[in-house]
Each structure stands twice: as structure tokens, then as C-alpha cells.
Amino acid sequence: MKIKRRLTLNTWISLGVIVLIALSLTWSFMEIKRTGGNKDLVDAMQRVTLDRTSHRDDYLLHREERAKLQWQIASETMRRLLESASERFTDEEDQALLQEARKNFDATFSTFSAILAIHKQEVRAAKKRTALDETESRMTSQLLLKAYALQDSIYRLGESADRAETRARTKGIILTVFIILGGVVAVVVNSTMLKRILTQRVTALNKGLRIIGDGNLDYRIDMQGDDELSDLGRAGNEMAAKLKESHASVEILQREITERKQAEEKLKKSEEKYLKTFQSNPVCVGLTRLSDGLVIEANEVMLKLLGYSDDEFIWHTMPELGVWNDPADRERLLRTLTAEGRSMNQEYWLRTKTGELLLCNHSAELIQLDNEPHIIFTFFDITERKKMEQALAEYTVRLEEANKELESFSYSVSHDLRAPLRAVDGYTRSILKKQGDKFDEDTTRKFNEIRSNTKMMGQLIDDLLAFSRLSRKDMSMSELNMVDLIRDVWKELNNINPYRTMHLIVNSTPRGYGDAALVKQVYHNLLSNAVKFTRLRDDAHIEVGGYNDGNEDVFYVKDNGVGFDMKYYDKLFGVFQRLHNDPDFEGTGVGLATVQRIIHRQGGRVWAEGKVNEGATFYFTLPHIGNILTS
To answer: Phi and psi (nearest 5°) for 487?
Structure first.
């Protein structure tokens, strides 16, 4: 998710929380207002009930017309309040209390009305007065009971209204707190995730850009995600890749492009800066008008190279002066500028004032000056460089021919040297076979030494020829399974040494990149050395492995053999240089030199560490496979 979207989400969450809090407070206010109104209504009903009771008692004691009228007014008020309450109280329990209150109110009203009817009888029969008094007394008792029941109903209705008001306040508070907590949690969670993402992204960007800024253009920033910082990291990787590609340019072209860009920057600021840039630039710089080709400006370097004075060159056209050797070249340049806006590193023949032709590297770009298109161009003389390149190409051809002749000579010498060696070996073998029993021990030993030395001489010739061919052998570079190469070589060495006790430990080994046959030869030479120099050990231990070290992979072969003295390290990889002259360790001194030449051809390094009688470790490197695949 985009960082902007997360920030927007935080804003919307906050706004949503505010809206929900406002709605919650509004609802709470309305509910509290409603329950408060209900409570006020119940309080009014209680006051009216007390007034009715007071007027009733006043009438029953004094039978005044005023008390009766006040009681009737209070009863009408009570009736309206009960009707209003039936509309406001919606709870079933409250409706039941209201129904009970209305019933008691109707009972008190009808009973008191009956008492009033009895009092209207102005004449009472003597014998009936006692009966009427008893009826009035009974009705008064009923009136009092129903009045008490009415007061009780209204009192309980008031308690219900109080509880409803308390519940409304509690619900409002709980709802508000819940909304606030929910919003805070949502904002905190989103902000925490945003902080973690920002921290990770900024840390990775800071580390990556610092490494790339220090010059490691092979480093790539590890950015995963689809937010703005990830896009920035990927843009940084693209920038590093493009910068790496740009470093492959020739140094002089880099300087020319840098100076041209500096000139363009200064041209945009003012005409004065244009002139300063022209005069200080070490290559030829000029400015022409696109519409008619007039030269507006040219620096001293250009004037000196072409042989013109300022007056002879400025405000003239180059075709007019015959600078373009082939006018078609200028037409192609103008078409390119019109279509693409720039032309970079094109080679054209230009003619000086004296008629000398110069091959120049030419670059040009369209710019706007005073709302009119102009061409700013640069060029420099590459005539001598081209001559040198041609001479180098001819020298390379001659060198290749010489190498072929040398190789032919090597084969010829090899054949010529082997023939007498085979003759010497054959004659000595024949003499020993036919006359060996007549020789004394010293003579036999000397004949055997002759045979041994001819055999070694033959091996030296083979090794030297193989060593000389390494620099000419074509390489087929590919990804290599180093463990498979190690196991193939070890299988061959085990077959050669069936009676030895040797243990090979294969540690973690990365995949390599190189020529499979040559790298296998490296392992063959190093493992053969390890097998040879552990010959005096009852239990030979040989260890191989590798690891990544930045832009290269390091591989090693370690043994517990006789080792070597580090003060003779400089001789270790030299041709025919042997640190062990012991007859127990045969060899010609070419194996490690072969290893070094193979690894150097593939862009790697070779070195070794060792101690006398404590074994040795040989290291070599190859380019890291990840960098090769990225390239």
C-alpha cells in the first residue's frame, strides 16, 4: 500500500472517529433529553397527584366549591399528562405502569365524582341518611386506596425514568469511549505499520545509497513492496546500473560529455557564460544558427585547429568555408538533429583552411536561444588515434601470425626433443635387459637414473607445451556445479591411488562461473598436490569448500600434508619452481603455475597459506555468479 494512501487512511480514520463521536454525542444528548423529558413529565405527574390529593382532602373536610373546581382542574391536567406519557414511554414495563396509573386515575376520578353526586342531594330522607353516609364512607376509603395506588404507580414510573436516564448516559459514555478506543487502535496500528515500513525502507535506502555513493555500483538495494520508497529504491538500482554502464565509456569521451553538459548549463544562464565556456574548453566548441547555418561563436581551440582567425570564421557558414569535406554529412546531421534533437559521437571528415583533412569525433544538440533554435556542437581530432588503432590492429594480426608460427614451432620442437629422448630411453632399457646382469650395482643405478631423467624430461616437455597453450585456448564460460567437478576429480585420484587411506571433506561450496574444463584442471592440479604431499601421512585429510566474498566467490583446497615455508611463497606459482626436492614428491613445478594462469584468464586470484609439517591451504577466486547474471 502506498505511503500516501496510509496517511490518507489515518486522516479518514480520524475524521470517521470524529464523525462517530459527534453522532454518538448527538444520540446521547437526544436520548438523555428524551429520558430527562420523561423524568420531568413524571415529576409533573407527581406534583399534580399531590395537588389532587390536597384538593380532595380540602373538599372532603370543608366541601367548598373552590376545592372541587381545583380538584377537577388538576384531574384534567393529570389526564393530559397521562396521555402525553403514553406517547413518550415506549418500554413495555413503563406501558404497564402507565396502564395501571390510568386505571387508578379513572377509579379515583369516578369514585370522587360519585361522592360529589351524593353531596348534590340537598334533601335526604332521615331513614336514608345513615345509608348514604355509609356509602360515602366506603367510597372515600376506596378513593384513598386508589389514590395511594396511583401515587405508587407514578413513583415507580419515575424510578423507571431515572433508570432510563442513567442507562442513556452510560450507553453514550460507553459508545463514545468504544469509538475513541477503536479509532485510536486503528490509527496506532496503521501508524505502527507505517513507521515500521518507513524505518525499513529508509534504513535500506540509506545503506544502499551510501554503498552506491562509495563507488560499489554492483550493489542493489533490496526493496520489496509497492510504496513510494520502494519505487525510489528501484530507481536507485536503475541509476546504479546506468552509472555502471556509463563507466565503460572511454575516459576522454566522459570528459568531453561532462564538459559539454557544463557548457550547456552555462549556456542556459547567460551569453557571457557561453563565451567563457567556449574559451576555456579543451575541445572544439561552436554555436551556429539552425535557420541559416551562420557560426555565432567558436572557441580558440576550434579556430586554432581549423586554422582560421576569428573574423574569418565567425558570421560565416561552414559549408561556405568548405569545412565539411562531404556536404552529405552535414545534411545527415541536420536530419538527425531535427528528428531526435541531438547527435552524439559521430565521426566526420573536416577540412582545415590549408586543406588538411581531419577525422573528428563530433557531437551536437539543438538548444533554444532568444526563442530561436541553435546548434551547439563540439568535436575533437581523432586522426592520430585512428592511425594508432589501425596500427594496433595490424600489429595484432602480425602477433597472431607469430603465435601460430610459435605454436607450430613448439610442436616441431616437441617432436624433435621427444625422438632422441625415446631413443635414449629405448637404448638404456635394451642394454639393461640384455646386459644388466653383467653390470655392477652402481652401473645399473646410473642406467636407471638415465631412464628416470629422460622420463622426467618428457614430462617437462608435455607440461611446458600444455602451459603455453593455456593462453591460446578458447574459453566457454558458463555456470558450474563445483561439487560435481570436485567429485569427478577425486574419483580419478582414488583410482590412481587405490592403496592409500584418504578422506575428502566437502564443505559448503557455492556455484561457480568459468570454463568447465579449465576449472576442472585447477581442481585436478590442487587435489593432486594435496594427495602427493600427504603421502607421508597414515591418514590423509583433504578439505574443500568455498564462500562468497562480495563480488567474487572464494574456493579452497586444504590438506594436512608436509606444508611449506611461507618465506619461499614468491616461488610457489613460478614455472619449474619446486619448494620440495624430496624424491618422495615427484613433479615438474608446472602444476601451480598452470593453476595461476587458468584463474588469471578467468578474472580471478590465487594465493596460498602453509606451515612446515602442518599442511597447506590453496585459495582461488572466480567472479560471483550473481553479478555475471545481473550483467
So the answer is: -65, -35
C-alpha to C-alpha distances, 86 to 57, 78, 110, 153, 518, nearest whole angstrom: 28, 12, 21, 14, 104
Q: Residue 105 burial by CB count (10 A; 0-12/13-18/19+): exposed, middle or buried?
A: buried
At 394, which amino acid appears?
A: E
Instruction: Report pLDDT digits (tens) over 504-525.
Output: 999 999 999 998 888 988 998 8
Domain 473-630, CATH among 3.30.565.10, 3.40.50.300, 1.10.443.10, 3.20.20.80: 3.30.565.10
Q: Residue ranges of the chain with pLDDT lower than 50?
A: 122-127, 250, 576, 582
Q: Which residues contact 429 (CB under 8 A, 6 or more apart)?
A: 451
Strands 606-611 and 540-549: unpaired
Look up the CATH architecture of domain 251-381. Answer: 2-Layer Sandwich (3.30)
Taking the CA atoms of residue 213, residue 215, residue 219 and residue 224 in that order, the dihedral angle to the nearest 10 degrees is: 10
User: What is the Cα 82 distance to its own chain's centre?
Assistant: 75
Q: Which amino acid is at 562?
A: V
Could you tell me if 297 and 274 are in contact, meaning their C-beta atoms sit under 8 angstroms apart? yes
Mean pLDDT value across the chain: 79
Q: Which three cell numbers stand for residue 42?
A: 413524571
Answer whether 563's CB lies under 8 Å from 572's CB: no
- Segment holding 553, helix H or strand E: strand 552-559
List all residues 6 or more positions away from 475 whose beta carbon is below 8 Å from its beta carbon: 514, 515, 518, 601, 602
**Which helix (H) or strand (E) element contains residue 339?**
helix 327-340
> For domain 25-172, is the CATH number 1.20.1440.210?
yes
The H or E element that residue 505 is part of is: strand 502-506
In sequence order, what DSSP letters do the residues of 181-208 get, joined into one string?
HHHHHHHHHHHHHHHHHHHHHHHHHHHH
Q: What cell was used for 68?
A: 372541587
Q: Please give the pLDDT value at position 54.
A: 82
Three-class secondary structure of residue 543 per DSSP: strand
Give the count of beta carbons closer than 10 Å to the beta carbon of residue 74: 20
pLDDT given for residue 621 in this prediction: 94
Q: Which element (helix H / strand E) includes 549? A: strand 540-549
**Grid coordinates given for 270:** 547567460
Closest CA to 48 of 154, 120, 172, 133: 154
CA atoms of 622 and 624, how far apart (whole Å): 6
Model's pTM, two decimal places? 0.36
How many Cβ atoms sit within 10 Å of the Cβ of residue 494?
13
pLDDT attached to residue 240: 73
Q: What's the number of CA atoms in the CB half-sphere (13 Å) around residue 594?
A: 27
The pLDDT score that the predictor gives to residue 418 is 61
Closest CA to 238 of 201, 209, 261: 209
Asked whether the beta carbons of 240 and 217 are under 8 A apart, the reply is yes
- Strand 295-298's sheet: what is its strand order? 295-298, 284-289, 372-381, 357-369, 342-351
The pairing of strands 540-549 and 552-559 is: antiparallel
Cell numbers representing residue 507 in the block: 564443505
Cβ atoms of residues 607 and 552 within 8 Å: no
If residue 615 lies in a helix (H) or strand (E), which one and from where to where? Answer: strand 615-623
User: Which helix (H) or strand (E) covers residue 478, if one does?
Assistant: strand 477-480
Q: What DSSP line would sit under 351-412, residue for residue? A: E-TTS-EEEEEEEEEEEEETTEEEEEEEEEE-HHHHHHHHHHHHHHHHHHHHHHHHHHHHHH
Cα–Cα distance measured from residue 143 to residue 325, given in angstroms and rounded to the nearest whole number? 134
